Amino acid sequence: MGKAGQVLTCAFFCHKADLTHDVLVTFVFQGNELLRILKIAAFAVSGYSSTEGRQCKPFNPLLGETYEADYPDKGLRFFSEKVSHHPMIVACHCEGKGWKFWADSNLKGKFWGRSIQLDPVGVLTLQFEDGETFQWSKVTTSIYNIILGKIYCDHYGTMRIKGSGNYSCKLKFKEQSIIDRNPHQVHGFVQDNRTGEKVAMLVGKWDEAMYYVLGDPTTKPKGYDPMTEAVLLWERDKYVTKTRYNLSPFAISLNELTTGLLERLPPTDSRLRPDQRHLENGEYELANAEKLRLEQLQRQARKLQERGWQPRWFQKDEDGCYCYKGGYWEAREKKNWDGIYDIFGQSGDLPSCSGEGPNLL
Question: Per the record's keyword annotation, is Transcription regulation included, yes or no (predicted)?
Answer without folding.
Answer: no
